Amino acid sequence: MGPWRCLLLLPLLAPALRAQQQQFMEYVERRLSLLEERISQWHDQSSRYSTELRDFKNQVLGMLEAAEKEREAMRAEAESAAVRVDRLEREVDYLETQNPAPPCVEVDETLMDKQVATAKQRKNEKYTKLTDCSDTIASVRAMKILKRFGSTSGLWTKDAAGSSEKIYVFDGTANDTVYVFPRMREFTLFSATRKAARIKLPYPWVGTGHLVYDGHLYYIRQQGPSFQVIKFNLANKTVVDSSVFPAEEQIPVFGLSPFTYIEVSADEEGLWAIYATKEDEKNICLAKLDPGSLDIEQMWDTPCPRENAEGAFVVCGALHVVYNTRLPSRARVQCVFDVSGTLAPEDASLVYFPKRYGSHSSLKYSPRERQIYAWDDGYQIIYRMEMKKKLEV
């Protein structure tokens, strides 16, 4: 097609091109208008969201301030309640001291006749004291909770006669491994047993009535219906002696601690064995034990009942039995039996232990420290005792 023909077609195509250009411009304008409208909507929504977020933030800050005020108020109330509880405990201690509960000894004619007959039979078998110790417990002077270690029931103690600072731990009521910590510091600081030496015993123990005395471990072994007292040398790890305990048909010595059949205790006079038999199943028996030969030197039937008893220990030749309730309450020394006869049961102080966790599975008196190592529901506790002369109580 020649150039002159293109020039002839231009006037014909120009209107069509202008129409297309106009349509394209209108399309672009509509798209821009829609875009501007959406931008405007987004701006409005963003402003609204910003306002709502600011309002929500202010609301949350107000709620946090109110919660903080309530928390401070609750803390103040809790501190005030703790102060009132401590004051109430002190008042209860005072009232219980002024108005002691009567000893839970069941008195009937048969028991009275039996006690009279026993007294007549043994009136010439008076116990000859080895020391001039004439002290008795007046009160619990202080209490220190060391830690929580092991099972709910167990025993921990020091050597009751020697000067060693080692801590001996019997975890549970039936085992054959004793943990030994070099000092109180290691036992207190470390929760695991990696810092403790282990002593594997030749026979497993039963109960929590064991004792460390003058470098030896005296522990209880059960063989069928009978029980043995094993004397174990801690230095060379050998059994020095053993003896079948000379009591028939033994039963748990404490009503609230059914796992203990014999409680070996130490005081200023030496070793003692606390036990019970079916012959007199209501009351606790006491025996003087020779630490060298394990022979029984003398035996007593005490008036202290087994029912609600959770533990016992001997101080200056006097048996102190600790009582509680089935639902653990405040433990208390409510029965005292003095083998020398210098302290009448009615003249003994009624000693209360501070209420803490549950009930004691073991109470070990240290005559050289005048304190008790207790195991209370897995907590290891030290009770420091306030002492008085027997004639002053």
UniProtKB/TrEMBL annotation:
**Cellular location of this protein?**
Secreted
Any coiled-coil ranges, and where? 25-98
Domain (Olfactomedin-like): residue spans on this chain? 132-389
This protein's superkingdom? Eukaryota
Taken from the UniProt entry, a GO cellular component term is: extracellular space
The cross-references to InterPro entries, in alphabetical order and at most eight, read: Olfac-like_dom, Olfactomedin-like_domain
Q: Where would you find the membrane-spanning parts of this chain?
A: none
Signal peptide as annotated in the record: 1-19
By sequence similarity, the record places it as follows:
Belongs to the OLFML3 family.
Record's protein name: OLFL3 protein
Q: Which organism is it from?
A: Menura novaehollandiae (superb lyrebird)
Tell me the gene name: Olfml3
